[in-house]
Amino acid sequence: VEIPALEDTVEPVLQDIFNAILVGDASLTVENARLALEQKIDSALILASGMIAAMTEVGDRFERGDYFVPEMLVAARAMQAGLAVLKPHLQQSDVQSEGKVVIGTVKGDMHDIGKNLVSMMLEGAGFEIIDLGTDTPAAEFVRSVQDNEADLVAMSALLTTTMPQMENTINALLQAGLRDRVKVIVGGAPVTESYAIEIGADGYAKDASRAVKVAKSLL
Amino acid sequence: MKPSFAPFRYLQDQDMAQIEETSFRILEEIGVSLDHVRAREMLQDRGCRVENDRTFIPREAATWGVQNVTPYKGFRCVDGTPSFTLGDGCFRVHNTAGLAYITDMNTGRRRKATTQDVVDSVTLLDALENVDIIMPTFGPQDVPAELITLVPTQVTLANTNKPVICTGIEKPEHVPYVIEMAAACCGGLEPFRKDPTIVIPVSPVSPLTFSRDGTEAIIVAVESGAPLMPLPCPALGCTSPITVAGALAQQHAELLTCFLIAACARRGAPVTYNSRICGTNLRTGISFWGGPEIGLSAACSIQLGHRLGLPVNVYGLSTSSSFLDLEFAYQRMANALLPVIAGADIISGVGSYDNVSTGDHRITVIDNEIISIVRYAATGCQVDEETLAFETMTQLIPSGGIFMASHHTVRNMRRGALWTSPKLLRQSDPPLDAMKWADMRTREILKSHQPRRLPGEILRELDEIVQRAERDLVVA
Predict the structure, then answer these.
(1) Nearest Cα residue to B254 out of B287, B206, B301, B318
(2) How high is the pLDDT of residue A1?
(3) In the 8-state DSSP scheme, what is residue B133?
(4) ipTM, 2 decimals?
(5) Three-state secondary-structure class, residue A9
(6) B-chain residues within 8 Å CB-CB of A68?
(7) Which of A187, B114, B130, B391 could covalently link to B371 via disulfide, CB atoms 3.0 to 4.6 Å apart?
């Protein structure tokens, strides 16, 4: 992986964090995040110049076609590991969440790979994730949106037989009076854009990387 | 990834022995037509017998010939730096050469090719990652006939540093100019003779006919130090027996004769073994380049050439289709894949269609895509601890992890575990059909690609050589 150099004024340890995230090395990211804190570097600076800069570079590489989904995922995981070290030292204002997302595979559907990919991609892009797992009843989506004051519901289905559960969940959000304050995106192999429109979803993503774009565009 | 498969074999050992035995009998009992006094004398010195217009070659002489040529493996760039060595388990690819026609990208109509088309095709071939060797794609129709080999060679040398094979040489008097141009690009005649940078193809006329000019071209080429690419092109049922076995035996005999002439002219002459067997449309009598007999005969030729210890160059990407349609795609893929899984060292055919009569830049780009598929198929299935991935499964599966987020996936993706095509890498939304995509990529490359340029003094030297050739060769 070709690593670009940050500006000369940046502390070497921040470059090391940047490099570690770019190659998806979580343990090296954690080690360098700790080192940076020991060197009394401001935690907000570590976040901005080391971690967010790296994820921006990862995103650019993906857009250019130089990086693929697995590289985005390992980078996002390294970023999350580093962030866990930084969090106790950060002020609330230092970390600006892109939004709170309740995500799950709909009732009757046990397939979660696609949902997990979307979850990891959203988390890597700065969203806060509440993952309800698989086989999630509509009522559980509703409860989680209420409890967490979520901004977005993301639903996945792999089976044509479970797709109607997406519409049931949207209706349940409507009945609970939540629909006007939460956006809904849907995806999964059999789901299409026209189906998403038909059931009243706000957005549809064909794949995990597009889910991030759709989520950002809605919030 | 390094290739890891046993090449596919059509011919059993006894089949190859029978074909070789038939080739010896062809040379001994049918003989060749050899219209070249010096060559006949050289062959007589090696025990050959001349009767009327036929030269009969005993198997001892044919065997001596193949024992006294050298396998040409170490291809060099135009500037003389080493490029690759055949026999490393990978196959290389080059384009079709000498086409008279091109389908114009802007009008969609077939027209005569020009020198600018040669420039564009070299630029394109230089940019494409799956093309390893470049030949002048077109015989431009805007130059005097006497320069139709030399001008494209000049243009090719000036616009790429990839290894170059010259257009098939018809006239021996062209060879010195070709050598002089190639030598000018790599530091002079002495470095060229030591490590030649251009390969010279010469075609005997099937069946078993060695014209005065063709034979002289073989002799002049090998005496100049250039590697020889003898290129018989028997057409099944037309200029060879209709059966593949018969054509293979005839082609083998023609190649053995070329090797013998080359070895007599210069002991140790570097050569490759080449096959251009094609089908025949028996309703029109015209050669036919779309059937699977192209790939099949190429695969068999590879076995025969490798049995002699020689690298083998065969036809691969070929089609009879006059359109860029489904027929184009399935014929091409079959004929490219067969020789590659049979262990070809070089496959040819990039950029042409309609029975190798017409070129199209967009086909060159599509071929680059087809080769990426064939290259993947040629890597086989590597089996070791890393590829079996037991440790990765142990870590991931029980904990509910996903393979797509594992370092094993990233690492092996970068090593080429999954096929990734140039088109896939530039996937658009909504997806473009292959031809629209090829059109877009061709225009992008022609607009932006900057091939390495030779220093000004060498470009001037090339100009001077061609001008001198014009004075010497062009009949006013």
Answers:
(1) B206
(2) 60
(3) B
(4) 0.77
(5) coil
(6) 413
(7) B130
